[in-house]
Amino acid sequence: MSNLLRVTNLRAKNPAGEWISPQISFDLQAGEVLFFRGENGAGKSTLLKTILGLHKKFTGEFQFALRPEEIQYLPQLGNLHFHLPLTLQDMLKNTGTGSPLLQGLDLQKKWNTASGGERQKILLASVLEKNPRLLILDEPFNHVDKESVEVIEDALGTFLKSHPQSSMILVSHRAFVQDWAHVRFLEIR
Amino acid sequence: MNSFIDLLVIYRWSLPASIIAAGVLAMIGAQWTAREKSAQIFVLGQGTSLGIVLGLALNILLGVDYHILNLVLGFSVGGLTLLASEYLVETKADRNHVYFTLFVIFLALTYLLTSLVPSLESHIASSYFGDLAVMSDGGSILNLVIGILFGGFLWFYWKPLSMTSFHLVNHSYIQRSRRDLFFDIGTLVVTTLTIQNMGYLFTIGSLFISTTLASRNSRNLRAYFNRLMTISVVGCFLGFLLSLLSTNLPTVPCVLLGQVLVGCLLYTKK
After folding, report:
1. Which of A52, A138, B86, B134 is the most exposed place for a label (fewest CB within 10 A)?
2. What is the number of domains present in chain A?
3. How does pLDDT run across B6-52, given as a tens digit for each residue?
4. Is A76 a domain residue?
């Protein structure tokens, strides 16, 4: 298995220079799923953002063996009201993907009127259609109804099976229910 | 009728330049508003305006007439404002008050320049309020060419740019492309040229009126784009024609009111 990401002694700081996460080190291999676990406020999301270049204050280092376009990221689903009238269809590059995530979705519905489940399903479909080598998901099951959670879990499992060289880093409070291969846990505390 | 056509012949460059500029500014304004950066572009306009006034002052003090100096200084101060706001201010969670502070500082500096160089006063008025009817042919043609080129870029990449705007406000924007850099530079070039040739009022008004009135009731991104173009282009054209009815009617307020009128007519239409 090839190494996709090496993280060494990474620790995030806030603008005042105070530590806001523990120090972590890990290697991520192709085909692996890495689960970040920890209490609220432990710094899991901040560490993800640091790796993605969205949080700039940190010590330590990280190195990808991937091109930037091979990485896809879904942040925590917020209550975003977008100024432009994007429809769910607008979020996709191809509409004929046949993804189970799109089943039952009204693609003409506007983002601003879609439910949490519909939003998360369309966002996940839009990143999966790009066939990422590394998928980074921050609490993908938050603000999502039970039925949508199952659809999302199935879609992730199917993606990992059909793309054995793709990896995933996941932050979630949800108990791990899927039988995914090559899963590792990293305690953030 | 003949005299009206004669008038249109006089404005053969300024009329299409204004219409194209209104359309391009509307597209720029829609994307910046979607990125929740309205205050940033408002300050960018004021920074550019300060640079242009600085160029005018230097022209007067040095006894020369180099329009390029105004443009270069407008572009430079606008560019510095954009860089500073992007890298110093945008990282702050609470930033609108910083933008308004910058706006007031730029305004105060512009006023200071006017006091130091009293003969600037008439130039300041035209720099702020503008007059599309007295635009030079050279300025109109330059605005027209740049407007068509950047407008074509915005039209062609409308959906990807809209998705970039979405990812920026969703905090999921992790891959900056050359297209996004081109969008930022194009915004700076177009706003500098329109502030220089058409005034601050026309520029800021065209950036925000259409997107404010088009955002309601549009079915999708394409319908919204069509509505945006109708408000800005048709509104500008109608306003310009209206201003030709009397010499007492200034062009810029008429053009902006034209956009408001068309926007209001479309506001309730599904």
Report:
1. B134
2. 1
3. 877 888 899 999 999 999 999 999 999 999 989 888 899 999 999 99
4. yes
Smallest CA–CA distance from B214 into chain A, residue:
A84
Q: Is A183 exposed, middle or buried (0-12, 13-18, 19+ CB in 10 A)?
A: middle
- Interface membership of A110 toward B (CB under 8 Å): yes
Determine, yes or no, domain membership for A104: no
Assigned domain for A151 exists: yes
Q: Is A92 a member of any domain?
A: no
Please give the residue range of the domain that contains residue A39: 3-85+132-187
CATH code of the domain covering residue A12: 3.40.50.300
- Could you tell me the pTM of the whole model? 0.90
Q: Report the pLDDT averaged over residues A108-132.
A: 93
Instruction: Answer whether A79 touches B (CB < 8 Å).
Output: no
Helix (H, G, I), strand (E, B) or coil at A33: strand
Give the angle subtended at the CA of B239 by the CAs of B249 and B250, to the nearest 5°. Answer: 20
For A3, A8, A63, the CA distances from A60, given in Å and listed in that order, are 18, 6, 11
Q: Can you tell me the ipTM of this complex?
A: 0.89
B205 CB-near residues (< 8 Å, 6+ apart): B252, B255, B256, B259
- CB distance B270 to B219 below 8 Å: yes
- Give the total residue count for chain A: 189
B134 pLDDT more than 70:
yes
Beta strand ranges found along chain A (DSSP E): 3-12, 24-29, 33-37, 58-64, 71-74, 134-138, 167-171, 183-187
Q: Which amino acid appears at position B66 of this protein? A: Y
Smallest Cβ–Cβ distance between A80 and the set B33, B169, B224 belongs to B169
